[in-house]
Give the backbone structure.
Amino acid sequence: MLKIAFLGGLMKYDINGKVVDPIHGAGVITEISDQMVSGEICECVVIEIVVGKKRVMVPTESLLEAELRPVVSSEDLDEALSELFMEPDELPKDWRRRIEKLKDRVHSGEPREVAKAIRDIIARSVVNKMNPSEKRVLNEAINVFAGEVALVRNIRSDSARELIKRSAQQGVQQNIESNKSDQESDGVTGETESTESAKEASEPGKGSGAAKSRKKSSVKK
């Protein structure tokens, strides 16, 4: 077992430990051994990333900078998945700023932020066709999130990917239908108020008739 002290506690790295790399995603520690990195031998934590099956070697002296963390709890994962059903955030209109904001979320290392990026890209694609950069960020975000979902739920990575995409699409559709229902409700309320106002104006003693009565009263005075 390898232990590394950091601000807020002590991080333990065990063989078969489930961890998340903010850039590459979730994986399992396969070994802690000496490896050749940049022409030098150094002790590394070797991680097999779940999605893509690639190996990532993190020198133990760089673990703090790498910002590895354990996978989240089942409860925290459910909260992250629930973000896929929330109302989407408005993204910057400038595509460069939009991509930068989305990448920051994907590389934050926080599953809820990654889920928000997925949700917002898919929601925006309903009215605006995804450009190649958005497609790449979406694919990266789904892969990063799917790895953690697979490890926490103990399911295959492809099943995790399908769960995320299906949930995001359902969430976006539910929000569209909810907003449409709210707009129709507001329209009915507005029509009712207009009808009532017109009815009051046409009744004796109300509307213009009431105004005339008030005018006569003022003349008598």
In short: The CA atoms of residues 76 and 111 lie 9 Å apart. Strands lie at 2-6, 9-13, 18-21, 25-37, 40-49, 55-59, 69-70.
